[in-house]
Amino acid sequence: MSRLYVARNPRVAARSLDGEMMIMSGRDSTLFTLNKTATILWQAADGATPLDEIVSTKICGEFQVEPAEALQDAETLARELADHGILQISEQPISLTTTGESR
Amino acid sequence: MLPPTVEAERLNVVIDIGGMPVRLNTTDASFLEMLQERYSGYVGSSSGNSAVEFDVELVSRGTRSFDADLQVTRLQDSWVIERGDFYAQWEPSTRRGRIRQVASPYSSDALLRIVHTLVLAEMGGFLLHSASAIRNGKAFLFAGVSEAGKTTISRLAPPDVTLLTDEISYVRKQGERYIAFGTPFTGELAKLGENVSAPVETLYLLAKGPENRIEPVSSGQASRSLLANLLFFAEDEELVQRIFHSAFEFVSRVPVKRLTFVPDARVWELIG
């Protein structure tokens, strides 16, 4: 089974405030507030770390869930975020050149 | 011998909102008069400098749908602002542009709002869906969606309060501070705000309720509410990022609180 890579879309604006990650799409100005899991995924989405590694190192420990179940949930979440244009997903590593994120 | 050329007289009006004078050049005296009346209190000296200047050409409605959706897009070095009743092109580097529009105050109003949002976005400021008023030399903003109480709280203001707007607030960043200016953009009150300004003291998020009270809100909630109430029209990633970060900057410098109120004048005992 191929591995999945995720990367923050550099065309969105993002800020973390009081533990909440807020993201605004540069495409249509839609504002998203990420929950804790999605925030971890967003912050770890560097395009180089495979999703399963993000899940095992960042999510399983935090939420004490089974790796297989956590990976399935993370894949669903990553695809949802990609549908909104705020994450990029690929079966190859993704070059993360610029980002609108700050703080 | 050629007949003498008749050249229409060039007229202009300077509409000074938020200390950002916009000059509109026209050859139509009745259109000029309409603008002078509509923006009474905001008409600046026609010999003074302007931050932005437009040549206005008046057109009939033509074949385009009057209700066509608004589009604000960047085209190379220019902004193109287009709706059924107007088309404008504006070059920020020269601060000059041209407008083709129907002779309606609503078209002029919409264009002015959009141009101001574009200019303000570059400077860390914004237009906000909120009432605003000055009391004791300090400006207070009252943000909320339709029916949240913007017009109500404006109507309840006591005599020592100077109303800046009951609908759209004009906020500029000056150094470390934010300054609220009066605007001619009115809501249900249909009364132009006073053309004065003051430093912003507090942004209140309005809600109607059974009693008057002020409560703190988290920075996240404050930012979300501010972003939800910003007027922003451009489909442009760079500008979206800029206004997004401007909202967070504002929240980091200006207290944001929730103001729940019953619709009577006692709410103003809590403000100022």
What does this 3D model show about the protein?
The complex is a heterodimer of chains A (103) and B (272). Chain A has helices spanning 36-44, 51-63, 67-83; strands spanning 5-8, 12-17, 20-25, 31-34, 46-50, 87-90, 100-102. Chain A has 103 residues and is of the alpha+beta class. Chain A has a single domain (5-89), classed as Outer Surface Protein A, domain 3. In chain A, strands 4-3-2-7 form a four-stranded mixed beta sheet. Chain A has a three-stranded antiparallel beta sheet with strand order 5-1-6. In chain A, strand 2 and strand 3 form a beta hairpin. In chain A, helix 1 (36-44) packs antiparallel against helix 2 (51-63) and helix 2 packs across helix 3 (67-83). The radius of gyration of chain A is 13 Å and the shape is globular. By secondary structure, chain B is of the alpha+beta class. The mean pLDDT of chain B is 92. Chain B has helices at residues 29-38, 105-122, 150-155, 219-229, 237-253; strands spanning 11-17, 20-26, 43-44, 52-58, 71-75, 78-83, 86-91, 96-101, 126-135, 138-143, 162-165, 168-174, 177-181, 197-208, 213-216, 230-231, 256-261. In chain B, strands 3-1-2-4-8-7-6-5 form an eight-stranded mixed beta sheet, covered by helices on one side. Chain B is globular and about 70 Å long. Chain B has two domains: 11-122, no CATH class; 126-270, Phosphoenolpyruvate Carboxykinase, domain 3. In chain B, strand 6 (78-83) and strand 7 form a beta hairpin.
List the helices and strands and how they pair.
The complex is a heterodimer of chains A (103) and B (272).
Chain A (H helix, E strand, L loop, with lengths): L4 E4 L3 E6 L2 E6 L5 E4 L1 H9 L1 E5 H13 L3 H17 L3 E4 L9 E3 L1
Parallel strand pairs in A: 2-7
Antiparallel strand pairs in A: 1-5, 1-6, 2-3, 3-4
Chain B lengths: L10 E7 L2 E7 L2 H10 L4 E2 L7 E7 L12 E5 L2 E6 L2 E6 L4 E6 L3 H18 L3 E10 L2 E6 L6 H6 L6 E4 L2 E7 L2 E5 L15 E12 L4 E4 L2 H11 E2 L5 H17 L2 E6 L11
Parallel strand pairs in B: 2-4, 4-8, 10-14, 14-17
Antiparallel strand pairs in B: 1-2, 1-3, 5-6, 6-7, 7-8, 9-10, 9-11, 9-12, 9-16, 12-13, 13-14, 15-17
